[in-house]
Design a protein that fits this description.
Blueprint: H1 17-37, H2 42-65, H3 71-94, H4 100-122, H5 132-150, H6 156-191
């Protein structure tokens, strides 16, 4: 866990290049959902998702190269990932491409972890340490969603894409749930530590701007 007690530091920066990219990705979420459900312009929706995935990689890279880590970025970057996943899941479920139970399982995972984060903040801790399996799960799901969109059709090519998309989706959901269990292990270990937390240390989580 990241401890957050103590005076403000450079990690409190708000206006950084990685954070600007994360805000740009955030603006793409409603556009992506509208493209899916309004005109059903799947090609453009996939393009927005691809740009979001690229900027997700880029903001983490720039955070390391420019040494522009921040607490705000550490919270915003994974939050935007979750919003893209939520938007894609809801849109795909409304269009009957994925079952609603899958939506419920992934939402339940995030709700449980959100409650854990709230409890941890009450005890003086910051965000979870990044579990790379969680980043991998997000990566796989963000590949599965555009493939599910592109495979939504009757042709032989679309059927082949749909088979690959379902394989990605199954693995992505499994990894997403498993990474949630790993975060729960972090939560359990933090609850066993003395309260309040020890002296502050300001780590640099990977994958956040």
């Amino acid at each position: 866990m990241h401890d957050v007690a103590g005076p403000p530091t450079g990690d409190d920066r708000l206006w950084t290049v990685p954070n600007a990219l994360s805000m740009l990705r955030l603006a793409g979420v409603p556009l992506f959902l509208w493209l899916m459900l309004g005109p059903e312009a799947d090609g453009w929706a996939v393009a927005v998702l691809a740009i979001g995935g690229f900027t997700d990689w880029l903001d983490g890279k720039l955070a390391r190269v420019l040494d522009q880590y921040s607490r705000f970025g550490a919270m915003l970057d994974p939050a935007v990932d979750r919003l893209y996943i939520l938007a894609a899941l809801v849109g795909l479920a409304i269009r009957d491409i994925v079952p609603w139970w899958a939506v419920g399982a992934l939402l339940a995972r995030d709700v449980v972890l959100a409650v854990c984060v709230f409890v941890l903040r009450r005890r003086g801790y910051g965000p979870f340490e990044v579990v790379y399996l969680g980043k991998a799960a997000t990566f796989v799901l963000l590949y599965a969603f555009p493939l599910l969109l592109l495979g939504d059709g009757p042709s032989a090519a679309e059927t082949a894409v749909r088979v690959i998309a379902h394989a990605f989706a199954i693995w992505g959901v499994a990894l997403y749930i498993w990474s949630g269990l790993l975060y729960l292990v972090q939560f359990g270990l933090a609850m066993r530590r003395p309260f309040p937390p020890p002296a502050p240390r300001f780590g640099h989580p990977d994958g956040g701007g």
